[in-house]
Every structure is written in C-alpha cells, then in structure tokens.
Amino acid sequence: MAGVRAPGPPGPVGPGYAALGRRVERLGGVQLGDVAALAETDDEAREWALTEPLINEVRAAHTLLIGSPMYNFSVPATLKAWIDRLTFPAAFHAPGTGASVLDGTRVVAVLSRGGAYGPGTPRNGHDFQAPYLRTYFTNLGVPEDRLHIVKAEMTIAGLVPELARFQGFAADSLEAARTAVRSLATDGFR
Ligand SMILES: Cc1cc2nc3c(=O)[nH]c(=O)nc-3n(C[C@H](O)[C@H](O)[C@H](O)COP(=O)(O)O)c2cc1C
62-185 has which fold? Predict the structure, then answer.
C-alpha cells in the first residue's frame, strides 16, 4: 500500500495514526523507512499508507506552493487535515541529530481573505492564518528567509455592499499579491 496516494484532500487522522505515532515517539530514532514495519494493526497500516506519500512529496519538494483562503480567521479544515497528517513523528527531522530535512525547502503561501487585517484595521490581531502557517513551517525547520507569505485582502469588497468603498484597496492588494508571486516565481529558484 505504501506509495498509494488517496484521491482528494486527506481526511482527518484516526486512532491508528495516533497509536503508530506514539509507538514511533516512544522508540525514538526511527527511520522513516522503518515505520511501516512498526504497524501492528490494519488500521495503523492503512493510516501510514495514507500518510507516507504526503511526507515523501514534501521532503522531495524544492518549493511548496500553498494556496489558502482564510476561513474563520484561520486555515480551512482541509489544509489543517493535510498538516495534521503530514506532521508525523520523525517525518522531517533526521534521527539522531534532529536536524531538519527542510532547511533548504522554500515555502510560498498565497493567502486570500475576505477582510483586511493589517495595522490600523479593526481586525488587526484577528489573523490566525498567516501567523499560524509561519509558526508551523519555521517549527518544521523551514528557514525564515525561505518562507514567503503573500496576502490578497478584502476579496469580498466587490460582493458586499457595505464594503464597496474598499474596492480600490482590494484591487491594490490583489495587484501587489500578483506582483509578489510573479517575482517569487522568477527569482531563479534559489
Ligand atoms: C467558510 C468561510 C469562512 C470564511 N471566513 C472568513 C474570515 O474569517 N475572515 C475573512 O476575512 N474572510 C473569510 N471568508 C472569506 C474568504 O476568505 C474569501 O472569500 C477568500 O477570498 C476565499 O478565497 P478564494 O477567493 O481563493 O476562493 C470566509 C469564507 C468562507 C467560505
């Protein structure tokens, strides 16, 4: 089963994922390639078969491109489900040294949000999307200077009559995001 990629977004992790993860943590120093042999039940084997391809995909990536709308001040449940499944013990740190295998990985997160959250806005401080992703990826070992967060704000200004006065802001924000993404896409794949 290992290597089979489930279609669609990953589902939430289940008891087999947690049990296998706890076993790997308890043993310590487990190589990723040895995890499958540690599964003791069909449920654990099934959970690992869903998890391992996602880990390998991220480990092999030069650049991870993430597109995420803001949902209720944070990331959508589908993105969180991917993050929860991906973040298996020992997935991104070398056993023994604990060094991150993502220290050369670049992450570009392109975020859209219906409102605006910058300094001076009434919702400044309500953004749990960008800071969450920053904390998550730096904690995994992605260097700060290889983590790029691009935001397009006030995306619903064209829909909601009370926000119509912010349509200029929204257009500028979208254009700035496009410029930032273009520049990241053409800066020579550092
Ligand atoms: C379920 C749901 C929750 C949302 N929650 C927020 C929110 O908390 N704050 C916000 O600014 N926009 C929120 N929005 C608006 C989206 O972030 C916005 O429409 C975004 O542009 C959607 O991304 P897309 O344009 O890439 O589809 C929400 C939209 C949906 C559907």
Answer: Rossmann fold (3.40.50)
Helix axes 77-86, 42-60, angle to 10 degrees: 100
Q: What is the distance between the alpha carbons of residues 145 and 90, in angstroms, rounded to a whole number?
A: 24
Is residue 159 packed enough to be buried (19+ CB in 10 Å), middle (13-18) or exposed (0-12)?
Answer: exposed
Where are the domains positioned within the chain?
62-185
Q: What is the token pair recorded at 179?
A: 């410029």
Instruction: In whole angstroms, give the CA distance from residue 139 to residue 123.
Output: 26
Distance 82 CA to ligand 1 centre (A): 19
Torsion angle in degrees (nearest 10) through CA of 71, 74, 79, 82: -150
Report the residue among 78, 111, 113, 132 best suited for mutation to probe ligand 1: largest number of ligand atoms under 8 A from its CB: 113
Closest-CA residue, ligand 1 atom 18, reads: 114
Q: How confident is the model over 54-96, as pLDDT tens digits?
A: 999 999 999 999 999 999 999 999 999 999 999 999 899 988 8
**pLDDT category, 3, cuts 50, 70, 90?**
very low
